[in-house]
Design goal:
single chain, 140 residues, alpha+beta, Thiol Ester Dehydrase, Chain A, 3 helices, elongated
Length: 140
């Protein structure tokens, strides 16, 4: 899907997307990223530092949000910037999956630069896990 600049005014919404993260996903991400911190892989270690269970990598969670933006824009290279704050962990159960829900809304338009600012809402189990998540996207 490619969105034209003229079709992306303030208030335009991105398609809501749900991701399901399992422990197997965390192991695969740990191998791919090199981030083998045991809080993402070992429930005993996670609990020993005060977490309720194993948690997803913050950069994985951020990447899920970014993937929604790039899918909407139709080109990963269209993303000029993307930043967020990590507000709550995504707890991933031993069996089943943790759902991560992503929605986005265009909140600003810069006609001279042909960019739009997209604010993302990223939640898991009804809790906001990313705060102040914003991407700036250049559209054709």
């Amino acid at each position: 899907m490619t969105v034209a600049f003229d079709a992306a005014g303030v208030g335009t919404t991105l398609p809501a997307t749900r991701f399901e993260l399992t422990r197997a996903d965390l192991r695969a991400y740990a191998e791919a990223s090199g981030d083998r911190n045991p809080i993402h892989l070992d429930a005993d270690v996670a609990r020993s530092v005060g977490l309720p269970d194993v948690i997803a990598h913050g950069m994985l969670t951020m990447g899920l949000g970014g993937s929604v933006v790039t899918a909407w824009a139709g080109d990963p290279g269209a993303v000029v910037s993307y930043a967020t704050r990590f507000t709550q962990p995504v707890v991933v159960p031993a069996t089943g999956a943790a759902a991560v829900d992503v929605t986005g809304t265009v909140v600003a338009v810069d006609a001279a630069a042909r960019t739009v600012a997209v604010d993302l809402t990223v939640t898991s189990a009804g809790v906001k896990v990313l705060g102040r998540a914003r991407a700036v996207v250049r559209l054709p």
